[in-house]
Amino acid sequence: SELRKELLDAFTNAGDSFLSGQYIADLIGCSRTAVWKHIEELRREGFELEAVRRKGYRIIRTPEKLTADEIRLGLKTKFIGKNIFYEESVESTQKIAHQLAYENVPEGTVVIAEEQISGRGRMDRKWHSPKYTGIWMSLILRPQIPLTKAPQLTLLTAVAVVQAIEEMTGLIPEIKWPNDILINGKKVTGILTELHAEADRIHSTIIGIGMNVNQKQEDFPNELQTIATSLFIEKGEVITRANLIKHIFANIEKLYFLYLDEGFFPIKLLWESYAISIGKQIRARTLTTTIEGKALGITDEGVLQLEDQHGKIHSIYSADIEL
Ligand code: BTX
User: Fold this and answer.
1) Ligand 1 within 6 A of 113 CB?
2) Hey, which of 111, 127, 224, 232 would you mutate to test ligand 1's pocket, going by the most ligand atoms within 8 Å of its Cβ?
3) What percent of the chain has pLDDT over 70?
4) pLDDT tens for residues 192-222?
5) Which residues does UniProt assign to DNA binding (predicted)?
6) Residue 45, pLDDT score
7) How big is the CA angle at 50 (ends 65 and 41), to the nearest 5 degrees?
8) What distance in Å separates the CA atoms of residue 211 and residue 26, rounded to the nearest whole number?
9) Does the pLDDT of residue 39 top 80, yes or no?
10) What is the pLDDT of residue 127?
11) What pLDDT sits at residue 148?
12) Domains, the chain, ranges and CATH?
């Protein structure tokens, strides 16, 4: 907003000096309480502010941005992330990536936003994507594979993300089939794979990755309090998002080349080594029905196999899993 811009300009001009609450209030024409609210909002977005009685406020640190330059520096991939579209605020990075995919941008193009106003999950569910604290991005890939194999890319991406988290934090996340990445039982990342196809050929896959990085517990809305977590909450340290993204890109590319050369089998083995549901009693809610049984594993295609109490084996292509 305009007020926000004025406020940030004032802090910029002040440099290392403090701005008093009254000064700010006069400047932007609002009450002291409103000033305090603006300051709190800046904090939520990752600004670090020092507040000293009778002196006022000053900015000590601005939030880390995810601009293309930030990510390109030191990026060692051949094609993933070489072409980056960076936005401050978007409805959904998926939407933009779909548009770009139609325009035939090069494979490996990524759309990244600091904030999504209507980030989405599967089946039109919402994905909470607050400013500066997470990684909200969509990657365009164009593998020459039949449509039925597209879900394998979700599993491949999950492995790449888990390994990136491990490399950056030492935390070891678990994967809940098909697309949830959990730490201590709470969701830290969601993956959404969407497609453009012609007949039975994939034109583009758009892989959306939503990752909670530096949120504090109170940054999550009520309905996510018990089910969501961030790397900051689990590790107790602020994580540099740009570095994490570089790890994710490198890992996806490595696994993708492996996948194109040797097929899904090596990916499947890696995926199973991180999966929590395998061998356990689970409940799978599909669009039409709910099946309970033991998760036997995934097929070479990436389809979940569930054995019910009568010994019948069900192939689950898409569902929500309860452990
Ligand atoms: P999903 O359908 O498996 O999960 C959605 C559910 O997860 C929601 O209904 C809610 O309960 C929970 N949830 C919502 N936001 C969060 C969050 N920040 N952390 C943890 N849990 C949450 C998962 O769908 C796939 C999400 C993909 C998101 C990426 S972000 C970049 C790209 N753009 C976009 O609009 N979506 C993708």
Assistant:
1) no
2) 127
3) 100
4) 999 998 877 889 999 999 999 999 999 999 9
5) 21-40
6) 75
7) 55
8) 39
9) yes
10) 98
11) 86
12) 2-61 (1.10.10.10), 68-274 (3.30.930.10), 281-322 (2.30.30.100)
Q: Nearest 10 degrees: CA dihedral of 20, 24, 29, 33?
A: -70
SS3 breakdown of the chain: % helix, strand, coil, rounded to 5?
35, 30, 35
pLDDT of residue 119 exceeding 90, the answer is yes
Residue 128 alpha carbon to ligand 1 centre in Å = 7
Sign of CA dihedral 238, 239, 240, 241: negative
251 lines ligand 1 (CB under 6 A): no
Q: Look at 41-50, 96-105, 128-137 and tell me which has the smallest mean pLDDT.
A: 41-50
Distance, in Å, from the CA atom of 244 to the CA atom of 241, rounded to the nearest integer, reads 5
116 within ligand 1 shell (Cβ under 6 A): yes
Say what the pLDDT of residue 84 is. 96
Nearest to 107 by CA among 91, 83, 129, 124: 83
- In this structure, what are the phi and psi dihedrals at residue 299, rounded to the nearest 5 degrees? -75, 175
ipTM confidence: 0.99
DSSP 219-263: GS-GGGTTTB--HHHHHSS---HHHHHHHHHHHHHHHHHHHHHH-
**How many Å lie between the centroid of ligand 1 and the Cα of residue 202?**
24
Q: 210 C-alpha to center of ligand 1: Å?
A: 6
d(CA 259, CA 280): 27
